[in-house]
Amino acid sequence: MAKQQGPLTGTQTLTIGKALNLGLRRALEDDPKVLLMGEDVGRLGGVFRITDGLQKDFGEDRVLDSPLAEAGIVGTAIGLAMRGYRPVCEMQFDGFSYPAFDQVTNQLAKMHYRSRGRITLPVVIRIPFGGGIGSVEHHSESPETYYMHTAGLKVVTPSSAVDAYFMIQQAIRSNDPVIFLEPKARYYEKGEVDLDASLASAEPLHRSRVVRAGSDATVVGYGPTMRVLRDSADAAAEDGRLLELIDLRTLSPLDLDPVYESVKRTGRLIVVHEAPTNAGPAAEIAARVQNECFYSLEAPVQRVTGFDTPYPASKLEEHFLPDLDRVLDAVDRTFSY
Amino acid sequence: MGDKPATKGRPATKARSGARRSRPAPTPAEEAALQGSVPEPEFVQLLTPDGERVEHPDYSVDFTDEQLQGLYRDLVIVRRLDLESTALQRQGHLAIWASLEGQEAAQIGSGRALRKQDMAFPTYREHGVLWCRGVDPTAPHGLFRGNDHGDWDPAEHNANLYTLVIGAQTLHAVGYAMGINYDGKVGTDDGEAAIVYFGDGASSQGDVHEACVFAGVYHAPVVFFCQNNQYAISEPVERQTRTPIYQRAAGYGFPGVRVDGNDVLACYAVARHALDQARHGQGPTLIEAYTYRMGAHTTTDDPTRYRTGSEVESWKQRDPISRMRSYLTKAGIGDDDFFASVDADADRITGRLREFVIGMPDPDPSRLFEHVYAEESPLQDAERAWFEQYQSSFVGEGAH
What residue stretches are annotated with the Dehydrogenase E1 component domain (chain B) (predicted)? Predict the structure, then answer.
């Protein structure tokens, strides 16, 4: 990541990683109760350098290098939130977030409900997620379904620099626990961000968005798969098929109204994600779309997803991950009905 | 009270000496259990099972007669509330009950050592601690009846809700205590501290280990109060650890101390000292209150399957209430009128509990969807709307 330390102003071209870094910086500046916690987030700036330079500028009490203990990070964040702080926890990798699973799903997610609203826990859990970085096992998981399935959590994932910058700040301001999934393979993708734009003017946190209009089929994805969707739309256009692309941005709560509207126009839906097929996000989306758009559908909802295997060794991940050809194949299938 | 050495009590067992063997030799406690009697270990004690006051070089108490009477009153009332709750479960008014019988001194001693500004994190058996925090004694019963998940305000009473996943709350307490540090509320007499309750079984949990790591590393003003009641449901403490629990503190870099958990005066003195240390910026302490759960783990349990009658009998001789009563009598602090008035208070309070529990209405179904989120909640809103419509469809059919 570029070591640019210019003023936080104007429209700048930023990587997703740098946009997250600047979003965290803004949140730390705006609210003294915001704390960053995690393994290596301090002096190292995180293994992906997302927290680069923040401990230097905000001190060890605001940016905590935590013991190597994921349940400890989330569990103490709960206590800090009960004390009035707004902790932002980093799970170093997706596969290492599972030791904290009890604290996230049994404690963090349920405290507001159990206490009948007396306790709010404004905790953000940042998880770099998804594959495609050629790493060893446990470094490329897609855990989103676990968290989507747990009431009490909100689950969001940006796919662009501008969303990264604003969504992390919105997540930190939320009074609910937010699982913030960062598409790690896309940390270096660049986009323009207007750093002067107010948070209030940004797209709301829990809204999906049509990112490309099209009339022939609807393709839905989020986070790491959005680049594949864009490439697929370009390729399909050469064949004369105009795909409408929707970035979900939010997995819990799902915002499917734009999807319903789109499917009612196109009659065709393809859902793309890296997580395995079985009981994955696409299953939920397909079921709801069937309920809402049954008479508009020209074909069954198609899923392009990871396989129902453990995440494979990295020399095999190109076969596991949804790619341009698999998306186009699904497009062909939906037109074969 | 002066500075304390890092640890107190008996050194580790000698079971490791001798030739290699496939299984470690029984600990003294195991041997004693096999023989049907349990020796008292070395611990801080200020009141013997016979009700004799004894001195300890490091810990003392300075109660007035009225305060001593108050402690006795607390012990009696929380036991009566507990026995009444067990009876309510047996009569079908509660789904389950987790009894504190035998652990009253540990809870009242430590609970009375707390100041208003301190925060308590209980597990699910700390009815005596809640009593000390001013929580209405009927408040936990919604949880055990199945009406709610605990209906008291943690912020109002500085007592968190019960936690059923073993040991999870130790991390919350440490995080809260880290927040006390960040708020600068340590280092003076009106500083704040957190105390977290857990059992001997919880000492095996990873969360408890991580909590101790964080507490040590961040020098958090927290007291770990382990009630070693000797059993995690059916498993004896030897199935959790081969090391006395309080000695584990040394590995985390803070003091550990073992106290007679059936001695309310010693529990008070030890907890007060640890809380003072925390409030004054001296960091965490692990207290092991050595006690015994006289009843079942919960009302679903059958302790006769795993405990001998003679073991239970030997612990009965160390009852926390009878020793206090004996002491008050011998010291001329309590007479028959006093004890009768305490019993009358207990009758009145348990009568109110019984009336409350039996009359507790089922919760309104709309509660199902309340407070899932603090902010927008579209999925739950949609489900609630559907559910209300569905419910209303039965009106007129006589189904509801």
Answer: 76-338
Same-domain pairing of A54 and A190:
yes
B157 and B296 share one domain: yes
Question: Which one of B154, B217, B367 has the shortest CB-CB distance to A67?
Answer: B217
Is A4 contained in some domain? no
B332-357: pLDDT as tens digits: 999 999 999 999 999 999 999 999 99
The CA angle B245-B251-B252, to the nearest 5 degrees, is 100
N residues, chain B: 400
Residue B21 lies in a domain: no
Which of A76, A106, A154 is the closest to B175 by Cβ?
A76
d(CA B258, CA B4) in angstroms, rounded, equals: 13
Residues A185, A240: one domain?
no
In a domain, A2, yes or no: no
B213: nearest CB among A69, A116, A151: A69
**What residue numbers bound the domain in which B391 lies?**
364-400
Statement to judge: residues A254 and A305 lie in one domain:
yes
**B139: which chain A residues are within 8 Å (Cβ-Cβ)?**
none
* Residue B317 sits in the same domain as residue B268: yes
Specify whether A195 is located in the same domain as A47: yes
Q: Are A269 and A218 in contact (CB under 8 A)?
A: yes
Q: What is the pLDDT of residues A250-268, one digit of tens each?
A: 999 999 999 999 999 999 9
B183 and chain A: CB distance < 8 Å anywhere? yes
Q: Which of A36, A63, A115, A147 to mutate to test the interface with B (most CBs of B within 10 A)?
A: A115
Number of domains in chain B: 2
pLDDT digits (tens, 9 = 90+) for A126-180: 999 999 999 999 999 999 999 999 999 999 999 999 999 999 999 999 999 999 9
**Domain identity same for B396 and B289:** no
Contact A112 B372 (CB under 8 A): yes
Q: Which domain, by its residues, includes A126? A: 11-201
Distance from CA of A114 to the nearest CA of B (A): 5
Question: In whole angstroms, what is the distance from residue B400 CA to residue B393 CA?
Answer: 10
Size of interface A-B (CB pairs under 8 A): 140
Strands A217-221 and A243-247: parallel
Tell me what ipTM this predicted complex has: 0.94
Residues B378 and B331 in one domain: no
Q: Which residues of A touch B180 (CB under 8 A)?
A: 83
Do B397 and B330 share a structural domain?
Answer: no
Contact yes or no for B224/B285 (Cβ under 8 A): yes
- Residues in B 362-381 with any Cβ partner in A closer than 8 A: 367, 370-380
**Residue B26 neighbours by CB under 8 Å, 6+ apart:** B15, B34, B238
A174, A154 Cβ separation under 8 angstroms: yes
The stretches in chain B having pLDDT less than 70 are 1-38, 397-400
Q: Crossing angle for the helix pair B104-113 and B65-90, nearest 10 degrees?
A: 130
pLDDT recorded at residue B171: 98
Q: Are residues B291 and B329 in the same domain?
A: yes
* Residues B118, B87 share a domain: yes
Considering only alpha carbons, which residue of chain B is nearest residue A86? Answer: B179
Say yes or no: A71 contacts chain B, CB-CB below 8 A: yes
Instruction: Determine whether the interchain pair A75/B174 forms a contact, defined as Cβ–Cβ distance below 8 Å.
Output: yes
Nearest to A216, CA basis, from A262, A271, A257, A273: A262
In a domain? residue B336: yes
Is the CB of A83 less than 8 angstroms away from the CB of B165? no
Query: Would an 8 Å CB–CB cutoff place A8 in contact with chain B?
Result: no
pLDDT of residue B16: 39
**Active-site residues of A: which are they?**
139
**Secondary structure (3-state) at B349:** helix
